[in-house]
Amino acid sequence: MDNKTSKQRNKVALVGVAVVIVLCCGVLYISSGDRIATLLHGTNTTHGDSFHPNAWKYADLIYPNTPYPVDHVVDGDTLVVNVAGNPVTVRLIGMDTPETVDPRKPVGCYGPEASAEAKRIFGSHSDDGSSTVYLERDRSVGDYDKYGRVLAYVVLPLDIASGTPTTYNEYMIRNGYAREYTYLNQSYANQQVFKLAERQAKKQHLGLWDLKTCPNLAV
Description:
This protein has four helices and seven strands. The protein starts with a helix and ends in a 16-residue tail after the last helix. The chain is an alpha+beta fold.
């Protein structure tokens, strides 16, 4: 074998090695990207509901003073609404109701009552039997939670809110269906109002703060 042929074969071998290295790097990059996406957005679940393909979408299509049809209630702090023809899961800001739908957890005390109240409210303020809601976003907490659910407040009609303009979020806390919920010490626009509503519900022993109803929660 002459020297020229040997050099050509060495070049071919080096090119082959380079191609293998590039392909391996590509696989590692994609795998790392998947892990990063999981860390940023959480696993493919929506708090007990099945993963929705519209996660991390359509928050920019939610506008003030615009009615959105309710598709269904997931539980006391989560519902699915129709946004531009797309079902979008909404997680209510600043509140947390006892668990009812997460298969990994037992049903929480007063969780069924909170879900029933949500279904009563979101099915009671329309003439045709359907339900619509007005959503308010809060830039201080961003558009989505870690599961890709849109974060929002729901504005209640005056008749449901006993003549006082309020949000569904505050209503549920004030009446003992939910706790005030601050995620990772992140402040939000209605935080102090919700904290006050919780203190009042505790003082009156309403809902989940009733020692006879939920002795392990009412502390």
